[in-house]
Amino acid sequence: MASSSFFPLALLTFLSMALPSHQQPPLLSAERESLFRVLYSVNSDIRWRSLFNDDDDDLCLSAPYGVVCDYPSESNETAQIVELSFGYVSDEAPNPPCSANATLDPVLFTSFKYLRRLFFYRCFNESQASVPDVSPSFSSTLEELVFIENPSLVGPFSSMLRNLTSLRRLVLSGNGVYGEIPQEISQMINLEEMTLSRNHLAGEVPGSLATLKKLKILDLSQNGFEGYVPESLGNLTELLKLDLSFNRFMGEIPESLRNLQSLEFLDLRYNQFGNFGVPQFIGEIPRLKEIYLSGNLLGGKIPEIWENLGGVSRIGFSNMGLTGNIPASMGVYLRNLSYLGLDNNSLQGPVPEEFAFLGDAGEINMENNNLSGRVPFSTKKFGKLKLGGNRGLCVDHQLSMQAENKNCLGQLKLCKKPDIPNAVLFSGISSLLFDPQVLFISLGLMLVFTVL
Q1: Could you tell me the CATH number of the domain that includes residue 387?
Q2: Inside any domain, residue 171
Q3: Distances (CA, A) of 168 to 131, 148, 179, 192
């Protein structure tokens, strides 16, 4: 009897776990149709309706991986699509794949009024897709807009920003978006990340960015921005990352950046900052972990600013017109350093012996300077130690014979053997010191000077 009743009981338990506890409201038919329209626009080779049961009123129960629905708390309301993600990222996240002729259907920006996240990764690579105007009805709830590696997505940047005041993340990286940053960006007061790298943006950066007080990541790298960096960026005190590299910014690096006390990553490489030296205020940003200024002809000496920067792991000071000696304090304080680029400058003098304190740093590049003297430590401490192009540097014979050092040392000359003092002179001095008369006179003189 017990065995005969077990199966129905187990089946009932399974069904109660597998099925919702109450009937969830279905997705509206209009929103379901819009979803299929979008799916066919990104990949018309897949039979979406057959795969995902078009006859079922509730598509949310059997939707593709990248389609996420939300069910409201009140049962009389309908289900809502809140996330749409397209394009292969990994096997663990098998979003609906995009075909070579994928297009961006404007229905995306009109039909999904509760959408919180829209994500496209490598979907528009061949056939050109135009950036559509964003309608007010679309923008009410959108929090994340992410387009990555879509070079054929072409259109003005301002068209994508219209009415998107709820955005927390704006990531447009590696697309064909062009134009300037509009003043209306200041209305996105909830933004925490704005990554606009590797597009075709240009013009000056508006000072109105300073109103985005919650911003933690600002990445404008690899565009065509020009002019001066606004002093007002120093008001973004929540910033963790500031990347303005590979643009055409000019003038002086703003002193106001010293206010960014939470900053961990600063990249200003390959702009047109010049003739003002390495900013001293860098030493006043204690949480910095990575600093990149390479490719700006700032000139001057490397300042003594390292005492409070013990957490720095990577420094890029290549091709900056630097002169003078390398500060020994870098070796004393930068114990976590894994990369140091000082190559292609006009640095002179010795390599500080204190660099032996750096531990097992990954790479130190001092190529093509005017350094001189003996290499004071073993290159075994570093994965890559590049010293070529310094005619005045020399290396011990034993070090030069190590196979792993031959390339990184750049065929440095061998150091001459150190001068050994004359052994006869030493023996003569020793004999004098042990002569009783000399010893008596020396002790007498010492006593006289002590009394005086």
Answers
A1: 3.80.10.10
A2: no
A3: 20, 17, 22, 5
